Amino acid sequence: MIEDTLKPPYYAVIFTTQLSETIEGYYEMAEKMDELAKKQDGYLGVESARSDVGITVSYWKNLEAITNWKNNIEHTEARDIGRDKWYKKYQLRICKVEREYGFEKK
Amino acid sequence: MIEDTLKPPYYAVIFTTQLSETIEGYYEMAEKMDELAKKQDGYLGVESARSDVGITVSYWKNLEAITNWKNNIEHTEARDIGRDKWYKKYQLRICKVEREYGFEKK
Fold it and tell me: Residue A1 falls within a domain, yes or no?
């Protein structure tokens, strides 16, 4: 899904991941965290794709919303399990979306 | 591939795409554009994944580098063909990367 209704400025969290061999339980947890994220104040949307690496970009109203989601207890527990079991490597970037352009074939 | 050596602040272009039925020539052109992007001044790296949607995040030193790449003639021609043939829909976001965290299992 492509988020096409957001108006800059807002924030993006770019989360790029490489999974380990052990992915038991990963997809269930990822879905659970997606559902939980959607319920947070300031959540605006998400885009996600996976090939060799996975890229999930979540969109947020402001930095406070991102910090609150980072400190959410269930999310913190999931992240701890992720670092222990599922992730071989990841990079997380917090970005301010300054401009945006869209195209859709009519 | 995960880019793990960049130091904020720098810029990210998040390009989320949905392809049309007509993808003849798309992957060749995407690879050609990746190669060309790497040669531009201010290019820092790229991360890419595709499932239902494709997400390509390219990283740049500053806004000027992004504008120059946008105006590159070969890139402009490829974009025109893309809008005509390959893309059903896309969203492009220009973002300032403010903070970054990495994890790697040892």
Answer: no
Determine, yes or no, domain membership for B48.
Answer: yes
The pLDDT value recorded for residue A22 is 86
Q: Are A47 and B55 in contact (CB under 8 A)?
A: yes
Interface predicted TM-score (ipTM) of this complex, two decimals: 0.96
Contacts of B55 (CB under 8 A, 6+ apart): A47, A48, A49, A55, A57, B14, B15, B16, B17, B48, B49
* Tokens matching residue A56: 């999930």
Note whether B14 contacts A16, CB cutoff 8 Å: no
For chain B, which ranges sit under pLDDT 70? none
Structure tokens at A74: 């269930």
B102 falls within a domain:
no
CB contact under 8 A, B2 and A14: no
Domain tally, chain A: 1
Q: Mutate which of A47, A55, A94, A104 to disrupt the B interface (most B C-beta within 10 Å)?
A: A55
Query: Is residue B40 within 8 Å of residue B72, measured between CB atoms?
Result: yes
Q: Determine, yes or no, domain membership for B4.
A: no
What CATH number is associated with residue A88? 3.30.70.100
B-chain CB neighbours of A54 within 8 Å are 49
Does the pLDDT value for residue A106 go beyond 90?
A: no
Q: What is the pLDDT of residues A4-48, one digit of tens each?
A: 999 999 999 999 999 999 899 999 999 999 999 999 999 999 999
